[in-house]
């Protein structure tokens, strides 16, 4: 278990994890005051999807579907004129973006993750906890971002969230365009080669 945690934390620092981290950070920051809901939903979406695929209980999401999800999440992350909270929107955006990001992500597979995923088809639902632990470790920069945002004064945070929301929406739209136009595979291959 410790080796899985260390490997996940190490993977968070590798370029191949950017495919998972950038959309996760974008949907989290773009959710504004509902960022915790979006972050947890992203973690759950990415964990469920990777577990279903690795345990051979589910199939791959088509790239076009992932691109459409990124585009919708971009719209959901765009700051709104009112400061009304929309927790259900943040929940849906986080969950679906987690699925989409995990769908195009190629993990920096080390020995611990390889052992875990090799055994998942033979394990019952307990494997999802180990998969979730690994994903949580890879997503540790999102946790650090949440802690950093909490450290800001309320007034400073309010000034930060609106421009950050526009940047988050832009990043998600770039992901959408790259995936829909099928340009993401070359970028992901390059990130993997930098990770080895």
What's a concise summary of this model?
With 196 residues, this protein is mainly alpha-helical.
Written overview of the protein:
The chain has 196 residues and is mainly α. The chain has one domain. Helices cover 76% and strands 0% of the residues. It contains 10 helices and no strands. Helix 1 packs parallel to helix 7, helix 2 packs antiparallel against helix 3 and helix 4 runs antiparallel to helix 5. The radius of gyration is 16 Å and the shape is globular.
Topology:
Blueprint: H1 2-11, H2 18-30, H3 35-54, H4 63-77, H5 87-104, H6 111-119, H7 127-138, H8 140-151, H9 154-180, H10 184-195
Radius of gyration: 16 Å
Structural class: mainly alpha
Overall mean confidence score, pLDDT:
90
Number of helices: 10
The tally of beta strands, per DSSP, is 0
Strand fraction band?
A: under 5%
Domain module tally: 1
Characterize the overall form: globular
Task: State the helical fraction.
Answer: over 70%
Spatial gap, N to C terminus: 23 Å
Low-confidence stretches: none
Order of helices and strands: HHHHHHHHHH
Give the biggest beta sheet: none
**Oligomerization state:** single chain
């Amino acid at each position: 278990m410790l080796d899985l945690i260390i490997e996940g934390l190490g993977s968070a620092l590798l370029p191949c994890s950017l495919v998972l981290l950038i959309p996760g950070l974008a949907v989290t920051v773009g959710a504004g005051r509902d960022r915790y809901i979006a972050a947890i939903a992203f973690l759950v979406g990415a964990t469920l999807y990777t577990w279903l695929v690795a345990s051979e209980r589910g199939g791959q999401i088509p790239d076009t579907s992932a691109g459409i999800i990124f585009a919708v999440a971009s719209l959901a992350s765009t700051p709104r004129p009112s400061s009304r909270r929309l927790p259900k929107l943040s929940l849906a955006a986080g969950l679906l973006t987690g699925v989409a990001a995990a769908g195009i992500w190629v993990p920096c597979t080390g020995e611990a993750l390889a052992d875990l995923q090799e055994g998942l088809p033979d394990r019952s639902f307990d494997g999802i906890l180990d998969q979730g632990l690994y994903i949580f470790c890879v997503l540790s920069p999102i946790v650090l971002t949440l802690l950093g945002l909490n450290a800001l004064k309320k007034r400073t945070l309010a000034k930060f969230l609106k421009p950050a929301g526009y940047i988050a929406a832009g990043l998600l739209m770039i992901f959408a365009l790259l995936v829909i136009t099928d340009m993401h595979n070359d970028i992901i291959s390059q990130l993997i080669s930098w990770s080895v």
